[in-house]
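Something for you to look into today, if you have time. Could you write out one complete protein record for me, on any chain you like? The space below this message is yours for that.
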Amino acid sequence: MKNLLPVALGSALLFASCGNTDSTVESPVDTTTVMEVPEQHSITLSDVSPSPEYPGASLTIGNVAATPQGADSVKLTFNFNVKNYELKAQTSDAGGKLCNNSDKGQHIHFILDNKPYVALYEAKHETVVAKNSEHNVLVFLSRSYHESVKSKGASKLYSFKVDADGKLQKSPTLKTPMVFYSRPKGDYLGKDVENVLFDFYVLNTTLSPTGHQVKAHVTGNGLDTTFMVTEWKPRFLQHLPMGKNSITLTLVDQNGNRVEGPETEVTREFNLSQDEPMTK
């Protein structure tokens, strides 16, 4: 008999507790559709065990300087202020999390225009952008195993323009609902393929079964499925197929329609391999 992957369409998807290793999914009978997935690629989504909290942890953006970088670009230098959070430290439960962990410790995720993040282990960063362009930067504190700190003050959105002369102009802070992709990212090898962290960042809204939701479309080798996320918390993707996988996140309303505005849909590819060399 084929395995069945429950997929919630426009309704709440209820997951097993973090201590339930078989990742059983409970769903309301009248609001859940069942989709068949090839047996060898029947993925599961399970809760992550509770992670250390950081009361009072804060991240703000200090000075941002723009300097010419050739005829058509500028180099931006970001400086950050971090309080009540230790960069480069190993998160206390990293050894028992059983997922990919940075040996460099805790860091900042720097996301420019919803592109793959850059992990910052120092409170500064340089990047190059084109003249006459507009951008959104999201930064947030991250545990050593790449799980975002979601408490108030642990993130900052910075919108700006660079004019034709290379001058930086800060834009008004966006107030519309947004979703930024964080994990999975890059390459997963060996035991890291077993628990792949699924995490993103939501701004200017909350998720609920009757309000905004994040639709996640997951594809891979023999895998093509969609699930709805109605609660903002990290989870593990398990039993993903080896090779290249892709996730598209879309912020939708209660009717399943994409929310209008910037940063409401993003696609990312990542790779899994049980052995060297990495298969892609």
About this structure: Residues 94-97 form the longest helix (4 residues). Residues 1-40 have pLDDT under 50 and may be disordered.
